[in-house]
Structure formats: C-alpha cells, structure tokens
Design a protein that fits this description.
The chain is mainly α. The longest helix has 41 residues. The termini are far apart.
C-alpha cells in the first residue's frame, strides 16, 4: 500500500503516512463502499418487484382488451333470454316515457304561445 499524497510505501495496517503524516483512509473507504452496496441491494429488490408488477398489469390489460384467440371479435353474452326480454321492455318503457314527456312539453309550449 502506498500513500496517496507522497507515494511513500506503507504497511497494510498504517493509519498515518510515515513520510508526510497524512492520514490513510483505506479502512474507511471499505466501510463506506460496503454500506453503498447494502443500500443498493435494499433498493434493487423493491424496484425489481415494482417493474415486475407493472409489467404484469400491462400484460393483463392487453390480454383483456384483445381477448383470447377463440373469442376474438366476439363479446361474451352473459345475459339469459329472460334478462334480455326484461331489458328490452325496460328500454321500450323508457322511450315511451321520454316520448310522453316530450309531447307534454310541446303541448305546454303551444298553450303558452296561444
């Protein structure tokens, strides 16, 4: 090991340079780099997990939008025939109410004009 400041050869366990008197910081650097590696490891796992979860979510979204090859272009019909009849009647009734309301409004406006 050599002194960074003057180039003097030092013993491995030296704390100060025997020529220039500057402190040798080798042991501190090892401790700091060890902490940095530990911090990187602590951060790497959650980041990797976040990337995997995000990729899985995107994959599911794409799969759900495109559908399976067998069902491509077809929507799955989950309503029974009875439910379809009920829905059609409800829509017809709503259209009838809308028409009745529109007619009543038109008659009320016609009366106001007269």
């Amino acid at each position: 090991m050599y002194c960074k400041h003057c180039g003097q050869k030092l013993e491995e366990d030296s704390i100060f340079c025997t020529k220039c008197g500057m402190p040798v910081q080798q042991k501190e650097k090892k401790a700091k780099s060890g902490k940095r590696n530990q911090n990187k490891k602590k951060i790497a796992k959650p980041v990797a997990l976040a990337v995997v979860v995000t990729a899985a979510g995107i994959g599911c979204k794409i799969y759900m939008e495109k559908g399976t090859p067998e069902n491509k272009g077809q929507q799955i019909d989950s309503m029974t025939a009875e439910e379809k009849k009920i829905q059609a009647l409800a829509e017809e009734e709503a259209r009838g109410k809308d028409a009745l309301e529109a007619r009543a409004l038109a008659e009320a406006e016609a009366e106001k004009k007269q």
